[in-house]
Write a structure and sequence with these properties.
two-stranded antiparallel sheet, globular, Hypothetical protein af1432, about 55% helix, about 0% strand, mainly alpha
Length: about 350
């Protein structure tokens, strides 16, 4: 912009303060994992800077080739881990906008929440959890990526609220609304946690219908009565119910669904477990992927030549940790190709970066 231009760029930090409600997290003064020298970017708040760093990370781009619920072989349109991430971020922004919370914090945490997810969805996660000493969780691995592994081993050095939102986003088999140490420390982090659930319940059913694993007539009438018969109606029903049911006190919003919606979400999840996640076609694909990860892990932890070729192995304390980091970073197709290379054993070790 020329010096004599009449246009004045807005102060992004002042603009953030002006649009936020009383319970929103402010990026002004948000500490990072490690102090940084020099002035902050003029055009981005600290949370916006975190988003910039996440979106430009290699681990973020690899999400495009990682399974969400259905493998790419199911068709051209099933959600990948990347498109799932984008939908979580979109929902989280909408929820935070309606509540006067900080959309930028929610978006950054949402965009980083699955960076550590291994290939082949939760089947891959279960496989690694059974193999790695001390177990494996994708949320902890996501934090390891942003703290250390990204940028060739220097990490992204995100703000503490974004790191917290990444680490505590996962519901697993626990309650939707976490309490105690497992609860995100900001309301924006809590919004990301519930948005993750809304996203996958809405879109996994959509993908199953698209792939022909389900026919519309198989969806129980009771589920249709709660959610409607489209992806849009399912997502909107959950978001609207969340906003209507969340009470606000002097301590801030207390996220909740109505009893009817909670029951409907539980019924939908049970239906998906039975008819989609555990159906023969999906379990067969996931079993193949999980076996590939087991094959790779065994090779990396027993073969010195393969172990020596693991990228960033110097950042790990043990060969098992290095194998975990390498495998968790793989895409589905890279893992299948690497496993085949391991099985053939006559080929030289593949030393490329995943």
């Amino acid at each position: 912009m020329p010096p004599d231009s009449p246009w004045a760029w807005p102060d992004v930090r002042a603009a953030e303060e002006a649009r936020l409600g009383p319970f929103a997290a402010r990026s002004r003064g948000a500490a990072r994992l490690r102090p940084e020298e020099g002035p902050p970017p003029l055009a981005r708040t600290p949370f916006q800077e975190d988003l910039y760093r996440i979106v430009h990370a290699r681990a973020f781009r690899r999400l495009a080739h990682k399974t969400q619920a259905l493998c790419a072989a199911s068709g051209d349109h099933p959600r990948s881990r990347l498109t799932h991430t984008l939908e979580v971020a979109q929902i989280a922004r909408a929820v935070c906008r309606a509540m006067g919370l900080n959309e930028d914090l929610a978006e950054a945490a949402a965009m980083g929440h699955d960076l550590g997810h291994p290939p082949f969805g939760h089947a891959g996660e279960r496989a690694l959890d059974a193999l790695v000493p001390g177990g494996f969780s994708h949320q902890a691995q996501s934090l390891r990526i942003v703290d250390l592994l990204a940028n060739g081993g220097t990490g992204l050095n995100l703000t503490l609220p974004v790191r917290d939102g990444i680490l505590k986003h996962s519901k697993g088999l626990g309650p939707v609304f976490a309490k105690g140490d497992s609860s995100p420390s900001t309301f924006e982090g809590q919004a990301v946690r519930v948005s993750d659930i809304i996203a996958y319940l809405a879109h996994d059913l959509d993908d199953a219908l698209e792939a022909g694993l389900l026919r519309p007539g198989e969806i129980p009438v009771a589920i249709l009565a709660v959610f409607g018969d489209s992806h849009e109606s399912r997502e909107n029903a959950m978001v609207k119910d969340l906003l209507a049911s969340t009470a606000v006190s002097r301590d801030g919003p207390r996220f909740s669904f109505s009893p009817a919606m909670e029951a409907g979400m539980a019924a939908l999840r049970s239906f998906m477990l039975e008819k989609v996640y555990r159906c023969p076609a999906v379990t067969r694909e996931m079993a193949e992927g999980a076996e590939a990860l087991r094959t790779i892990y065994l090779a990396l932890t027993t073969d010195s030549e393969l172990a020596e070729a693991i990228p960033l192995k110097h950042l790990s304390r043990t060969r098992e940790e290095a194998a975990r980091d390498f495998i968790a970073g793989m895409t589905d197709r890279f893992a299948l190709r690497y496993a085949q290379t391991v099985r053939e054993r006559g080929l030289p070790p593949f030393a490329g970066r995943p």
